[in-house]
Amino acid sequence: MAEPTGIETLVEGEPEDYSPEEFPSEYTSESAPAGEGAARKPVTTGNSYGTGRRKEAIARVRIVPGTGKWTINGRSLESYFPNKVHQQLINEPFVVLGAEDAFDVIARIDGGGVTGQAGALRMGLSRALAILDAEVNRPPLKKAGFLTRDARATERKKYGLKKARKAPQYSKR
């Protein structure tokens, strides 16, 4: 006869401390509502600084406790980035932390195009917020992927090709 593994006792009989209240009466595919502790307010004790890079763009970002005023190269957010998609992309770190209108942002951006500058600004903001209070702010920003540098850049042109990958037109004769 085989040695008992312990599984037979669970299958054959119920444990002594079993109570039906511990198990749900029905199963659903819906998840439980999210707790209130998910989006905690960041600590607004002082200034913070972060540098973000994306493609050829570099953003030097300083955040200070305030009312949500944006200054990018001496201009407002709406005038520097008129595209609503870029404005939403830039504001995502504050939305994740639930800190909209809690900080004033002063940024200097150099190089690159509009999308690259928006990505660099988002990364600079995320780094500044992560430095401000690492234990509270860093995990949600890291989970959202805002602290990861997007290393994609323009591929260089190769010898014998018209562009990075475009070959000259083939001619049979």
TrEMBL record:
What highest taxon heads this organism's lineage? Answer: Bacteria
A GO cellular-component term linked to this record? small ribosomal subunit
Q: Where are the transmembrane segments?
A: none
Q: Does the keyword Ribosomal protein apply?
A: yes
* Gene3D superfamilies documented for this protein: 3.30.230.10
Q: Does the keyword Glycoprotein apply?
A: no
What HAMAP family does the record point to?
Answer: Ribosomal_uS9_B
| Similarity comment: family membership | Belongs to the universal ribosomal protein uS9 family.
Name the chain's protein.
Small ribosomal subunit protein uS9
> Which species expresses this protein natively?
Microbispora cellulosiformans
